[in-house]
Amino acid sequence: MSIRSCIGRSLVVVIAACSLAGSAVSSAALVMLVLAASICSHSVYAQDGAATVWPTRQWQTSTPEEQGMDSAVLAKLLDFGTTRSLDSLLLVRHGRIVLDAYYAPYTADIPHRINSATKAVVGTLLAIARKDGLLDSFDRPMLDFFSDRGIANVDDRKKAITIQNLLDMTSGLDWKEPLDGRPDTMIEMSRQQDWTQFALDLPMASAPGDIFNYNSGGAHLLSAIIARLAGMNTLDYAKAKLFDPLGISVSNWWRDPQGIPIGGFGLALLPRDMAKIGYLYLRNGEWEDKSLLPLDWIDKVSHATVNMNMPRAPDLRYSNLFWALPEKNVYIADGYHCQLIMVLPRLDIVAVTTARDFCPLGRLADLIAGAVKSETALPEDAVGANLLAEKIRELSTERATEVGATPEIASAISGKTYRFPANALGVKSLSLTLVDPNPHYDLQVYARGRGQPSLRFSDPIGLDGLYRKGQLTDSGLFATKGKWLNDSIFEIERQAVGMDELQKWTLSFDGDRLNLRGKDREGRDVSVDSEPGG
After folding, report:
1. Are 227 and 235 a contacting pair, CB within 8 Å?
2. Which helix (H) or strand (E) covers residue 74, if one does?
3. What is the pTM of this model?
4. Could you say which of 27, 39, 301, 485 is the most buried, measured as most Cβ atoms within 10 Å of its Cβ?
């Protein structure tokens, strides 16, 4: 949004104030206008006279120096990304991409699961529904939308839960999903046939509004509410009201057993499209000639006040399903293992990361800010530009890891199917075909939840120290490589490209027996023996 349009809206408020004051211009009205101008200017393109760039069809690109950023500092930022297992790092300043880097084997054309950053998209859709008149108020009681259901544990506290409470994670529902621990209630919900009913039936642990308690179930209830408001599922509404206007054409979204797109996680987007969502916020909810989001929604997100009560990060705040660092003037759509859409309004920057590990939010924001040297263009820096370009090439090129010699046992086990009892790794059966021009594996995994199918995979496996990618399916895209550690032990690395999963299994062969070792989804060591007879 331009300064002119933002202040133009504010003038309506000023004129109203003047009328109430009975004068052409009251001092209070002048104060309001100055305040409005300052609010508007904090997230508007900083370079005077420059037109807003809209990346609906495609992003424009620029050198960092043209947008006042230092290429050499950005090269160091990419090194930081390596230490945090980033899959991608993208920076937009003044509406143009200045950094677009991808860490092999991930590439720009693979949709990436954004985990809990999905919640911020759900919140955005509710804001659109409010602006379009489908939702009359965020203070509407949650239970109003489920009057057709029988709900357990209803008391005055549950009746008082509002949409805003769900948006701020202050519902008071008894939910255990600590940000630094095992998400017990989320795991329990994933085993249910009706996730919405499970979340509605939960008992109360506190009064609504009293305590912040991270709760993916509440976000899933919001997805169900969107469907009821819009008369279509959340993904279809997102396409019609958010994705299509922004030019986002590649997306998929996991659903619960009832077919409802999961409100707490499961959306996959391309990094460049993640940046469009951040850019919508940076431009105060406007896109091209349309206003998609209410200004008061943007203001609440950017001035979050709900204390997240995290001892290791006491400055973190929450609002409308966004995280915030108010002291740094930064707010974030945040997903597990550093799936981030970070908005830095004062610097006119949107940053996007996808990753397979945690990252310190404040440190990352500081590193990005440290690359900003000017509000206007810097002189060309050939040395810094070459350094950055070489770093991007280096990261995007996979380096082969060492592999051991192929032992005689490879022929004996090749093509043999090993079956396993139920185990925390989820492996039901596994077959390796290694002595073949096209090495591959066949894997069957146990169903993760009630009513869900057992999945099968048949993908190539690299034996030369390089990953081999399979086909992109609804279950994801897997890149796999393997190596012999000695005459009887084979190691597999299976990376879910575009997700934050890396499975590393050690296979020990002893006659007809196979011992499989690895870590489960909570990082605990697991060892399981194949069943007798293969």
Report:
1. no
2. helix 71-83
3. 0.88
4. 301
Q: CB of 64 within 8 A of CB of 90?
A: no
Please write the tens of the pLDDT for every residue from 86-108.
999 999 999 999 999 999 999 99
Alpha-carbon distance of 250 to 126, in angstroms, equals 21
Alpha-helical segments (H) within 192-333 = 195-201, 216-230, 234-238, 244-246, 271-282, 295-302
Residue 14 has pLDDT above 50, yes or no: no
Q: Which tokens in the block code for residue 391?
A: 């770093």
Cα separation values, 351 from 95, 272, 319, 327, 370, Å = 12, 10, 19, 18, 13
Which DSSP category does 186 fall into? H
> pLDDT value at position 449?
66
Instruction: Give strand pairing partners of 93.
Output: 96, 349
Domain architecture of the chain: domains with CATH: 3-41 (no CATH), 50-110+270-397 (3.40.710.10), 112-269 (3.40.710.10), 409-529 (2.40.128)
Residue spans of alpha helices (H) in 376-470 = 382-396, 409-413
What does the block give as tokens for 309? 């009560």
Whole-angstrom Cα distance, residue 504 to residue 123? 36
Q: Phi first, then psi: what are they for 64, rounded to 5°?
A: -55, -40
Tally of CB atoms within 10 A around 303: 14
Tell how far CA 509 is from the center of its chain: 39
- 3-class DSSP state of 480: strand
480/401 Cα distance (integer angstroms):
13
In terms of Cα–Cα distance, which of 96, 2, 22, 115 is closest to 58?
A: 96
Residue with tokens 């959306």: 267
- CA 379 from chain centre, in angstroms, equals 35
Answer for the pair 161, 171: CB distance below 8 angstroms, yes or no.
yes
How many other CB atoms are there within 10 angstroms of residue 243's CB atom? 21
Could you count the other beta carbons within 10 Å of the beta carbon of residue 422?
A: 10
- Give per-residue pLDDT as tens, 155-170: 999 999 999 999 999 9
Beta carbons of 440 and 533 less than 8 angstroms apart: no
In whole angstroms, give the CA distance from residue 442 to residue 431: 5
On whether the CB atoms of residues 474 and 498 are closer than 8 A, the answer is: no
Query: Sheet harboring 513-519: ordered strands across?
Result: 468-469, 477-484, 489-497, 501-510, 513-519, 525-529
Retrieve residue 311's tokens.
């001892």
482-516: string of b/e by CB count within 10 Å (b at 16+)?
bbbeeeebbbbbbbbbbbbeebebebbbeeeebeb
Question: How is 48-60 classified by DSSP, letter by letter?
Answer: TTPPPP--SS--E
Coil vs helix vs strand at 184: helix
Residues β-bridged to residue 319? 322
User: How buried is 480 (Cβ within 10 angstroms: 0-12 exposed, 13-18 middle, 19+ buried)?
Assistant: buried
Sign of torsion over alpha carbons 107, 113, 115, 121: positive
